[in-house]
Specification:
With 296 residues, the protein is α/β, with parallel strands linked by helices. The protein has helices at 22-27, 69-76, 110-123, 143-149, 168-177, 191-201, 251-258, 262-285; strands at residues 2-11, 14-20, 33-37, 46-49, 52-54, 59-65, 82-83, 85-90, 101-107, 127-134, 152-157, 164-165, 184-188, 207-211, 227-230, 233-236, 243-245. It is built from eight helices and 17 strands. Strand 1 (2-11) and strand 2 (14-20) form a beta hairpin. Helix 5 packs parallel to helix 6 (191-201).
């Protein structure tokens, strides 16, 4: 069992969860992830990037957006509660070296995945430009953390409620049109965003990396659930990635694969919501019933 030492809300449906995992904390490198299972008997396995770690207190930091059954269950956890399984660090570490001027683009909760690599790139001596995007100001995350590790930081919101109005791709495009010399780009976020970033950098032959987060099950490449097409070859995001050359990724196939289990995910979420609603009704009717009551 892995004990939650801290849990707090960063934005609506987005929580920071710090977990005691000393061995992972000692070994993890930027870009790597863990496979988490909330319940040992019935829980599904989900991949979560390690946003940070502290070797001294033996903890890793995960940032979780509650969109499905397991992520919502994770976001219900409080300090002192436990997670059944946390396996890692998994995946290939980010390519960290002094490229020169790098742009780190984070879309939505993708900022949490980009953050540790931005830290490592800064430590390697790069001039780091950050571009962080979200639909609205309310769901922007890690503003202070990104500000502390970047030399320049720009915010983009779809509705203009914070920073500039528009998309992260527009900001990158404007920097290039201003004549900025950019040597390397890291883009992490929704698939359409990463594809759009690749389209911006491809004509200029700018080295561009994306982190792919398709369905992963075991994190070892054995299940084949995270197969992606990169440079015309089949790769497994969990063992060959999760980071790949954006100009080689077949984003069409990636988008199709990401929807494979949508019906099952929706069904599991609906069942969780029904169970939660029923338990709440039981507690209202019977205030003496404890929090562990199960729906019949």
């Amino acid at each position: 069992m892995f004990v939650v030492t801290e849990a707090r809300t960063l934005a609506p449906d987005i929580r920071l969860i710090r977990v005691g995992a000393p061995r992972i904390a000692r070994r993890r490198q930027a870009g790597q992830f863990v496979i988490v299972r909330v319940d040992a008997e019935f829980g599904e396995r989900i991949p979560l990037t390690i946003a940070d770690s502290d070797e001294d207190d033996g903890t890793i930091t995960l940032i979780v957006q509650g969109v499905g059954k397991t992520t919502k269950l994770l976001n219900m956890l409080q300090p002192g509660e436990t997670i059944a399984d946390v396996v890692g660090p998994l995946g290939q570490p980010s390519d960290i070296r002094n490229f020169g001027t790098v742009v780190v683009v984070g879309g939505g909760v993708g900022t949490a995945i980009a953050y540790p690599t931005a830290v490592a790139l800064k430590r390697a001596g790069n001039h780091v430009i950050g571009i962080v995007g979200a639909r609205t100001k309310d769901i922007l995350i890690l503003e202070q953390e990104m500000g502390a590790t970047t030399d320049e930081l720009y915010f983009m919101t779809d509705d203009g409620s914070y920073g500039e109005r528009g998309f992260v791709t527009q900001k990158l495009q404007s920097l290039l049109e201003e004549g900025r010399n950019i040597d390397h780009v890291l883009a992490i976020g929704p698939i359409p965003m990463m594809q759009a970033i690749a389209d911006v950098t491809r004509p200029r032959d700018i080295s561009t990396i994306v982190s792919l987060n398709p369905i992963m099950v075991d994190g070892t490449g054995m299940c084949g659930g995270c197969r992606v097409l990169v440079g015309g070859q089949s790769k497994f995001a969990c063992v060959d990635g999760p980071e790949f050359d954006a100009h080689d990724v077949d984003f069409t196939i990636l988008a199709q694969r990401n929807t494979m289990y949508r019906r099952h995910e929706r069904g599991a979420l609906e069942q969780l919501e029904l169970t939660s609603e029923h338990c709440c009704q039981l507690r209202l009717q019977h205030p003496d019933v404890g929090p562990d009551v199960q729906a019949p």
